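Input record, target 12 of the design panel.
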């Protein structure tokens, strides 16, 4: 038996806080009975739980997948334009979905899970999940320009949070830079480098929290073990 808001959050319907609002507003029923009590507990395997008229599907086996996304693949379950999607690379019967996105041209580490609450928290900026990218940028930025990224720059959607930025090498007349951010704005890293007039040539996410691409080739994936999932949960204040 679990609290109703936890069951709803796990099913990916809403965050736990939003689930509490849905319960309080009388938009949840259990076995045909309207529930408004936040402390109400239910059995997700035996009880019929309906949210906004929709029966929720329970998560039977929790799964978290680490995928090494190639460039030229869209982070979506399907694409009306017929482009290759990330889900085509996963050989699993579990209904998983991506945690955040990598744009079409960006490659690297992408997480999938069937735990909606874990996904919501990993994407929420308040939990400060570090994401590290390796960028090859046009030209060689000065330290003064890199300092602007470290302090935060003003984009069209506001000031970015301070970033960790390290130049690790050069490739022809271009720079190879590692940049760590914890926000998840659309095409943020690309826009940050464009802001300092050194546009990105190639971009790869190489680390997500403590997770890296070690041992996972491009286009391949691995399933996280229980210890890794527990460690990931603890980073966003979830019980194992």
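The sequence produced for target 12 reads:
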């Amino acid at each position: 038996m679990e609290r109703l808001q936890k069951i709803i959050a796990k099913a990916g319907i809403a965050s736990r806080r939003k689930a509490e609002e849905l319960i309080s507003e009388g938009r949840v029923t259990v076995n045909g009975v309207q529930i408004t009590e936040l402390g109400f507990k239910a059995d997700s395997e035996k009880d019929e739980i309906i949210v906004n008229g929709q029966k929720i599907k329970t998560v039977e086996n929790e799964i978290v997948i680490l995928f090494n996304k190639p460039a030229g693949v869209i982070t979506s379950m399907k694409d009306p334009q017929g482009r290759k999607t990330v889900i085509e690379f996963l050989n699993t019967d579990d209904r998983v979905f991506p945690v955040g996105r990598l744009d079409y041209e960006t490659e690297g580490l992408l997480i999938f899970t069937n735990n909606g609450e874990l996904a919501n928290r990993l994407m929420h900026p308040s939990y400060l999940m570090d994401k590290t990218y390796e960028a090859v940028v046009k030209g060689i930025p000065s330290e003064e320009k890199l300092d602007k990224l470290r302090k935060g720059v003003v984009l069209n959607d506001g000031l970015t949070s301070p970033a960790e930025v390290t130049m690790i090498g050069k490739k022809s007349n271009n720079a190879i830079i590692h940049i760590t951010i914890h926000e998840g704005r659309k095409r943020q890293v690309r826009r940050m480098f464009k802001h300092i007039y050194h546009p990105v040539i190639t971009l790869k996410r190489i680390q997500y929290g403590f997770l890296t691409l070690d041992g996972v080739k491009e286009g391949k994936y691995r399933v996280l073990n229980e210890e890794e999932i527990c460690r990931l949960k603890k980073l966003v204040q979830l019980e194992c």
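The helical segments are 4-10, 16-24, 116-123, 143-151, 188-195, 226-235.
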